[in-house]
Amino acid sequence: MAPVLKVRELRKAFGAASVLNGVSLQMRQGEVISLVGSSGSGKSTALRCINFLETPSSGEIEVMGDAISAFQNELHETEIINAANIRIFRRRIGMVFQSFNLWPHRTVLGNVTEALVYVLRKNKREANEAALSALSKVGMADFGHRYPSQLSGGQQQRVAIARVLAMQPKLMLFDEPTSALDPELVSEVLKVIRTLADEGATILLVTHEMRFAREVSNRMIFLHKGVVAQDAGPEELFRNPATQAVKQFLSSVISTAA
C-alpha cells in the first residue's frame, strides 16, 4: 500500500533563520507518529508546512499520490509546483491546533457544520447528521446548542477535534493539542486521541506529553535543529537514543515518560 504521506527534504526559513533543514518522512495508513524534540526544533513548523499553512522554502510533500513541490528560483523567491493541489491537501488533511479556534458566536453544532456546508457543500440535514456523529465520538453530542464560552478548555478542544473528524480526513495533524489546557483537563483530550488511534486513524502528533507519545505511537521522530535526529519505534528511541541530543532530551523527560 502506498504511503498516505511522503515528505522529502522539507526546508523552511523565516528570513535568515532556518527552521527546517531537510526533513524527510513517510507515513502509512493507520500509523500514529509523534514528532518530538526540544522547543524550537521545527515540529510545529513541519506540520504547518505539510498543510501549507506555511509555504515551505523548498522540498516536496505528497499526500495519497498528489504532490506539491517548492524551490528557490534565481531571485531567491519561493516557487510552487502544482499549487492547485493545496486545495486537495486541505480536503484530505485535518489539523487540530494548540488553541481551539472555535467561532465564539456559533454554537458547538454550528462550529462543526460550518465547513461541511461551505466546503463539502452538504445540505443542512446531512451536515447536522455528520456533525452529531463526530461530536458523539468525542463525547460532546449533548453540548450541541452551547456556545464555546460555556465550555471548559478540554471540552472546546474536543469540539475542535470533532470539527476535523466530521470532514473525514485521511490524515490528522495535532499540534500540541493539550498545551493550552489546565493539567486536570489534559487527560480527556488524550483519551479522545487514543481512541482515534485505536480505531485506525492516521495521526501525526506534535506533543510534549512523552508518556502518552510512547504509549500511543507506532513511531517517534525526534527533530533537532530542523533535521531528523532519530526515527524509530518508541521503545527503541527511549532505550537506544541515536545522538547526544536525543539522549539529553530524554534524560530531561524520562521521569514523566517511564
UniProtKB/TrEMBL annotation:
Gene3D superfamilies: P-loop containing nucleotide triphosphate hydrolases. It is an enzyme of class 3 (hydrolase). SUPFAM superfamilies: P-loop containing nucleoside triphosphate hydrolases. The keyword Transport applies. It is a peripheral membrane protein. Keywords: ATP-binding, Cell membrane, Hydrolase, Membrane, Nucleotide-binding, Transport. Belongs to the ABC transporter superfamily. This is Octopine/nopaline transport system ATP-binding protein. It comes from Mesorhizobium shonense.
